[in-house]
Amino acid sequence: MTKQATVKKESIDIAEKAVQAGVDMNELKEKVAHAIEDGVADAKRMIKKGRYAAEDFADETAHHIKQDPWRSVGVTFGVGLGLGTIVGLLLARKK
Predict the structure, then answer these.
(1) Is there a domain that residue 73 lies in?
(2) 8 A C-beta contact, residue 47 and residue 39
(3) Measured between alpha carbons, how far is 9 from 6 in angstroms, rounded to an integer?
(4) Model confidence pTM above 0.70
(5) CA dist 50 to 22, 57, 62, Å?
(6) Residue 84 falls within a domain, yes or no?
(7) Residues near 9 by Cβ (< 8 Å), separated by ≥ 6?
(8) CA dist., res. 68 & res. 71, Å (int)
(9) Alpha carbon distance 77, 79 (integer Å)
(10) Low pLDDT (below 50) residues in the chain
């Protein structure tokens, strides 16, 4: 084989590899695009489920407050007293 034929064959091999690399990059680009689309769809689905759960929790809370209002007042008072005590202790520590 002559030197010119060898260079020509090597050039063709390099060109084929470049074309294959381009094809591989396109496939990779498509896979990444699909993965991103799937991630966005999953995130939207999770947000929707979270919103429904929050709405259900708010409805249940309203129902419990209507069923037993004095218990709700007592729980709220206890939580407020506890948080107030903790904040007071933390502020007293800093001074």
Answers:
(1) no
(2) no
(3) 5
(4) no
(5) 42, 10, 18
(6) no
(7) 1
(8) 6
(9) 6
(10) none
pLDDT at res. 24 = 72
CA atoms within 13 A on the CB side of 71: 8
Q: How many domains does the chain have?
A: 1
What pLDDT, on the 0 to 100 scale, is given for residue 5? 74
User: For 67, which DSSP code?
Assistant: H
R_g over Cα of the chain: 33
Q: In whole angstroms, what is the distance from residue 75 CA to residue 78 CA?
A: 5
Kindly state whether residue 48 falls inside one of the protein's structural domains: yes
Please give the torsion angle defined by the CA atoms of residues 55, 59, 62 and 68, in that order, rounded to the nearest 10 degrees.
Answer: -140
What's the gap between Cα 69 and its chain centre? 38
Q: Is residue 54 part of a domain?
A: yes
Q: Which domain, by its residues, includes 15?
A: 3-68
Q: At what angle do helices 69-94 and 3-67 cross, to 10 degrees?
A: 120
Residue 83 is predicted with a pLDDT of: 96
